[in-house]
Amino acid sequence: MPANSHAPLARQAMAYVLAGGRGSRLLELTDRRAKPAVYFGGKTRIIDFALSNALNSGIRRIAVATQYKAHSLIRHLQRGWTFLRAERNESFDILPASQRVSEDKWYVGTADAVYQNSDIVLDYGPEYVIVLAGDHIYKMDYELMLQQHVDARADVTIGCLEVPKADAIGFGVMGVDESQRIVSFVEKSKDPPTIPGSDDTCLASMGIYVFNTKFLFDLLDQDAADLHSSHDFGKDVIPYLVKNGKAVAHRFADSCVRSRNETRAYWRDVGTLDAYWEANIDLTGITPELDLFDRDWPIWTYAELTPPAKFVHDIDGRRGHAVSSLVSGGCIVSGASLRETLLFSNVRINSFASASECVILPDVNVGRSARLHKAVVDAGVRIPEGLVVGEDPELDAERFRRSETGVCLITQPMIDKLKD
After folding, report:
1. CA distances from 415 to 110, 373, 398 (A)
2. Which of 227, 19, 30 is nearest to 117 (CA)?
3. What CATH topology corresponds to 310-416?
4. SS3 of 111, please?
5. Percentage above 70 pLDDT, the chain
6. Confidence band (pLDDT; 50, 70, 90) for 24?
7. Do 9-284 and 310-416 agree at the fold level?
8. How far from each other are the two terminal CA atoms of the chain, in whole angstroms?
9. How far is CA 194 from the centre of its chain?
10. What is the pLDDT of residues 84-123, one digit of tens each?
11. Collapsing DSSP states into helix, strand and coil, what is residue 255?
């Protein structure tokens, strides 16, 4: 046991965030950035949720493993997350795939992404390691999961969501007994196991795992030596422990953090254009399912210095106004109208333009008289004067990336092609 057994378990833990995913289902949004670095909610990046959960839970040692298109992510982490101080027994390590084990070997799986940095983790001497995915939107107190792990004397404790059986085919699903011990684990099965007492609800893996540190790295040493392994937690390590060890399920509902305005446990994988658009637009509602105004569980991020948002002109037909919208600092709504729209920082919407049900990323300029509906506009895009998007499906599909539900993704290369 640790020397101070009365201290919160989170202070004896390290959070290890896996943030190397390509995020290819987000299409051109991840052409220049990894999925965890994609903007979300007006101010934050997706990875800020996992990192904020760790910090708010009391964890003060954090490591982030990066790989694909990592520059934007690393720059964000350096700007917003380097306030943890070694002299307070805190640490924040950014761990790119740097061929530490072999000069020709990048991270080949999620387990390998932890194994390759085993010496760094072990140097800090944490009692526990909590492995997190860096690409989901949720609020969770990891201290409660750590406590269950210790109380159950588990080899691994796995964070799980309750999902309808019809939706479970896209997940790794746990079969559990009455004590929450995992007795089976299947990936993306057409007939996944259901939870005891319910024939239409399954426990799906959240990609969150708690281990005792020494046990984890003994296990990863064994996995690294297995030539038949793909060195992945979901495909190799977890199935092995379900069969040969003690794996326990932790239900997200037991540790989900909710303000008084949040009625249900909120978790989203914003990995498709439609899901990304919907989760952002939901925030413009009167009482959204995700409460970003919760001061008891803040979402930390890089706080860019910007002037206040500005709304100007008060002339019929040229009135700067917004309804049911989120407008970030540095924005200027100049004689334009917004409805159910989310503006990130430093966006300018010029006179006679309109945007409805749009997610507009930082540093975008929308030209005069443009009309945008149900669009996601990538950072830095210059929307030409008079451009109309969201009114002619066939024309939209020719010029932009259009989803099945009619969401249009607009990037600068797409705009540049219009000029050719």
Report:
1. 37, 16, 12
2. 19
3. UDP N-Acetylglucosamine Acyltransferase; domain 1 (2.160.10)
4. helix
5. 96
6. confident
7. no
8. 68
9. 26
10. 999 999 999 999 986 555 555 678 889 999 999 999 999 9
11. coil
416 membership: H or E segment, kind and range: helix 412-419
Q: What are the residue boundaries of the structural domains of the chain, listed by start?
A: 9-284, 310-416
Pairing between β-strand 354-356 and β-strand 371-373 as defined by DSSP bridges: parallel
CA distance 312 to 37: 32
Residue 265, CA distances (Å) to 18, 161, 216 in order: 23, 9, 29
Beta strands per DSSP E along 294-400: 310-312, 314-315, 318-319, 321-323, 326-327, 332-334, 337-339, 342-343, 348-349, 354-356, 359-360, 365-366, 371-373, 375-377, 382-383, 388-389
Contact 248, 158 (CB under 8 A): yes
Q: Which CATH class is domain 9-284?
A: alpha beta
Tokens 């399954």, residue located: 202
Residues annotated within a binding site for alpha-D-glucose 1-phosphate: 107, 172, 187-188, 205
Cα–Cα distance for residue pair 367/151, rounded to 1 Å: 59
Over range 56-60, report the average pLDDT.
98
**69 within 8 A of 76, measured Cβ to Cβ:** no
Q: What is the DSSP string of 134-199?
A: SS-EE-B-HHHHHHHHHHHT-SEEEEEEEEEGGGGGGSEEEEE-TT-BEEEEEES-SSPPPPTT-S
Annotated binding residues, as ranges? 107, 172, 187-188, 205
What radius of gyration, in Å, describes the C-alpha atoms of the chain? 23
- What is the mean pLDDT of the segment spanning 8-28? 91
Given pLDDT bands bounded at 50, 70 and 90, which one contains residue 5? low
At residue 124, φ and ψ (nearest 5 deg) are -80, -25
Q: How confident is the model at residue 3 (pLDDT cuts 50, 70, 90)?
A: very low
Residue 93 token pair: 């390590």
Q: Are 41 and 48 in contact (CB under 8 A)?
A: no
Q: What angle do CA 367, 39, 210 make, to 5 degrees?
A: 175
Give 234's DSSP letter: I
193's tokens: 């196991």
Q: What is the model's pTM? A: 0.94
